[in-house]
Write a structure and sequence with these properties.
Elements lengths: L3 H12 L3 E5 L8 H11 L5 E5 L11 E2 L11 E4 L3 H13 L4 E4 L6 H13 L3 E3 L6 E3 L4 E3 L13 E5 L2 H9 L6 E6 L8 H9 L6 E6 L5 H13 L3 E6 L13 H5 L2 H11 L3 E2 L3 H12 L8 E6 L2 H13 L3 E2 L4 H8 L12 E2 L7 H14 L3 E8 L6 H14 L6 E5 L7 H10 L3 E3 L1 H13 L16 H8 L4 E2 L1 H10 L7 E4 L2 H11 L3 E5 L13 E5 L2 H14 L4 E5 L5 E10 L3 E8 L3 H4 L4 E4 L4 H9 L18 H17 L4 E11 L4 E3 L3 E4 L3
Parallel strand pairs: 1-2, 1-4, 2-3, 4-5, 5-6, 9-10, 9-11, 11-12, 12-13, 14-15, 14-16, 14-17, 17-18, 18-19
Antiparallel strand pairs: 7-8, 7-10, 20-30, 21-24, 22-23, 22-24, 25-26, 25-28, 26-27, 28-29, 28-30
Helix pairs in contact: 1-6, 3-4, 6-7, 10-16, 12-13, 13-14, 19-20, 22-23
């Protein structure tokens, strides 16, 4: 873990320096050096700007120095706009001059060169933006360190942006004025300073309300977790758009869980656990940033919207259901207040189409919306039109929205029903008032869903002593690849996961005795090493109630498979679920809970939780699954032991966490949930290779 105070000082020198030196300024048209000089000079930065170019120094009347050591004072931050072949020497000169931060635009494609540069910068305790960066903008300070033109008149606000793609940064900053950025960084190759470092720094800035991250990869997992925790502690929303997916099956997974869960899913589960929000597109990300930047929080789960179209409000209601958002049931007092301002024949409903003949529309919309927002059951309000500028009716609606906005402290946004609406002019006006205008109803619904999901998070991986049997199992399992089912069931039992009575046998006689001791019908399974899916290969015999049945099953399995035979109690029927844990190399263990048995491949419904977690957290997650309704006695079926399933999931998460350095993946499929409990009847376990 990086020392936070020194890291913060280096980031201050990078993003908020008192002095900056531009190495490689140029008089050549359309050169990086000339464009950089213009952006820094005209951005409004109040700090000292110094320039270096040996070719231009003599004719510059002292404006440009020949080298860094000829500058009047050591620069805090040195920007290198030089050819790749000169970068390493320029880095040496900058560090020798006492720079605490550097920005490098060159791609520096030679990995060995980047490593040398990184080692030098880290040894000096400095920060480095790049290489291969498009630079950064600190709009709050008027500092534009980039050779790529971006409007210089952008208004500062509370949105931080960290992008592992310069073109994404350019797209958001060049094309729409509704987002008011504080700082925006193109991180480049992150040879030294990572996205996690930038996030941690932005969280500490007083103007920050929300931070957006466009991520291809997380290069500093622990730093990322720490930064997300800091953001949650300060109620700063973090919105992430992640690209690039890879499957854990590429790591030779043996379980369904390992094959079905990808790295992207683990990151999503982690972000959710840390209180962040995942966007599905750049438009969704922009919508979330705009809504969170308003700074208001939803005070109730319900939403309200006002329209000028009946069909539009029906479409909005459908979209709300798709995003698991509920329209608030308005109180009688609210309904009466709305009805009093509507024209005859228009019903006071939520969502509300308040348009009649248009007579007195400004007062109608203002008072109706204000009444909706005052209702205790409404958490967020939306004013939905085909917003466009230079239209007298929408000018009236804009005034009504502004009037209503001033009467509430709840989140309130304008929404264009069509993402290509000509709303840019209005968006800028609304932004000045603190009102986001979101283009596209789907984007708006995604943003509202994120806003309503936002809230306090519990401490991440709170410290507690390991399970009393954890060290025993580390010693037993360490260095082994394949863990047999009998040993796996014993492991589960030690950690509080209920499992059937069982015995491992090598002869028919031992099978008779084991079945007699267990009592009742039994199951026989091959225990052949390395065979993870026994049912698929005919390695499981169920419902064996007589000695003859046990004998026939034993003989058949012994003839077709190698190794011992597992004799186990036949568990009473119930709903089949599956639980599995994978150990992500970056973020640690996560547990997948899903319908089990054959449905693990057929039903694409599951929840993934970062371990460890409580039984209450597991129960809440299971309850959100459609399959979870089967546990609650759907359509006359018996109520099953859902709480025991949640307890087993929490126990598996503890097992996965305590043995994270020993086990690579664990799966229970199925775990049978009946009216009495939840019992693990299968174990697939792989340890880390020695």
């Amino acid at each position: 873990m990086k020392d936070q105070s020194s890291a913060s000082a280096a980031l201050n020198a990078l993003l908020a320096p008192k002095s900056i030196a531009l190495v490689g300024v140029s008089d050549r048209a359309e050169s990086y050096g000339r464009a950089l000089d213009r952006m820094v000079s005209e951005g409004g930065f109040a700090g000292r700007v110094m320039r270096v170019n040996p070719r231009l120094a003599a004719q510059s009347q002292g404006r440009i120095a020949a080298s860094l050591d000829e500058l009047p004072e050591p620069p805090e931050h040195v920007v290198l706009s030089v050819a790749t072949a000169r970068v390493e020497a320029a880095v040496d000169a900058a560090l020798a001059a006492g720079a605490r931060a550097l920005t490098v635009f060159s791609a520096c494609p030679d990995a060995a060169m980047r490593e040398r540069i990184g080692d030098k910068v880290r040894a000096a305790g400095a920060a480095l933006c790049g290489p291969n960066s498009m630079g950064f903008h600190n709009i709050t300070l008027g500092l534009r360190v980039t050779p790529f033109p971006v409007p210089l008149d952008l208004r500062a606000g509370g949105v931080g942006l960290i992008a592992q793609s310069g073109s994404i940064l350019g797209a958001l900053m060049n094309n729409d004025r509704r987002l008011r950025f504080s700082q925006a960084v193109s991180t480049g190759s992150e040879t030294v300073t990572t996205a996690a470092d930038y996030l941690r720094w932005m969280v500490d800035q007083p103007e920050t309300r929300v931070v957006g991250l466009f991520l291809e990869t997380v290069r500093d997992p622990q730093g990322f977790i720490a930064a997300m925790e800091a953001a949650a502690a300060r109620d700063i929303a973090v919105v992430i758009l992640k690209v690039g997916r890879s499957a854990l099956s590429a790591r030779m997974a043996i379980s369904h869980t390992g094959a079905l869960v990808g790295d992207d899913a683990v990151l999503r589960a982690l972000v959710h656990r840390l209180g962040g929000h995942m966007a599905g597109s750049l438009d969704e990300m922009a919508a979330m940033l705009a809504l969170f930047a308003q700074g208001r929080r939803a005070t109730a789960p319900g939403i309200a919207s006002i329209h000028d179209s009946g069909g539009e409000r029906e479409l909005m209601a459908d979209m709300a259901e798709d995003h698991r958002l509920d329209y608030a049931a308005l109180s009688p007092a609210t309904t009466a207040a709305i009805q009093a301002v509507l024209e005859p024949g228009i019903a006071a409903e939520n969502p509300l189409d308040a348009w009649g003949t248009g007579q007195g529309a400004r007062e109608t919309y203002t008072r109706a919306l204000a009444a909706m927002m005052a209702d205790a059951r409404v958490g967020t309000g939306l004013y939905v039109l085909n917003w466009r500028g230079n239209y007298y009716l929408h000018e009236m609606h804009a005034q009504a929205l502004g009037d209503a906005f001033g009467q509430t402290e709840k989140p309130l946004a304008a929404v264009s029903n069509f993402s290509r609406s000509d709303d840019a002019m209005l968006a800028g006006r609304f932004a000045d008032l603190g009102i986001p205008l979101i283009s596209g109803m789907q984007n708006a619904m995604a943003a509202v869903r994120a806003l309503h999901d936002h809230g306090p998070v519990s401490r991440f991986r709170a410290p507690e002593p390991p399970h009393p049997r954890a060290q025993y199992w580390r010693d037993v399992l360490g260095g082994r690849d394949w863990i047999g089912e009998a040993e796996g069931l014993a492991l589960f039992a030690d950690f509080g996961i209920e499992s059937p009575s069982h015995a491992l046998v090598g002869t028919r006689e031992e099978a008779f005795l084991a079945a007699e001791r267990i009592g009742g019908p039994v199951v026989l399974k091959t225990a052949q090493p390395g065979l993870s899916h026994k049912s698929d290969s005919g390695g499981v015999k169920i419902g064996l109630a007589t000695p003859q049945a046990v004998a026939e099953a034993f003989d058949d399995l012994a003839a077709r498979f190698q190794g011992d035979i597992l004799v186990a109690e036949m568990v009473a029927p119930g709903a089949e679920w599956s639980m599995g844990a994978i150990n992500d190399p970056d973020f640690g263990p996560a547990v997948r809970i899903a319908p089990g048995g054959i449905f693990v491949d057929l039903i694409d419904e599951h929840v993934l939780l970062i371990a460890p977690f409580s039984a209450a957290e597991a129960a809440a997650a299971i309850d959100k699954l459609r399959a979870g309704k089967l546990l609650a006695g759907l359509r006359g079926r018996p109520t099953l032991a859902a709480s025991q399933l949640a307890h087993a999931a929490a126990a598996l998460s503890r097992l996965a966490w305590d043995l994270r350095d020993t086990l690579a993946e664990v799966e229970i499929n199925p775990i049978i949930v009946n009216t009495q409990g939840a019992m693990a009847v299968d174990a697939v376990i792989r340890a880390h290779p020695s």
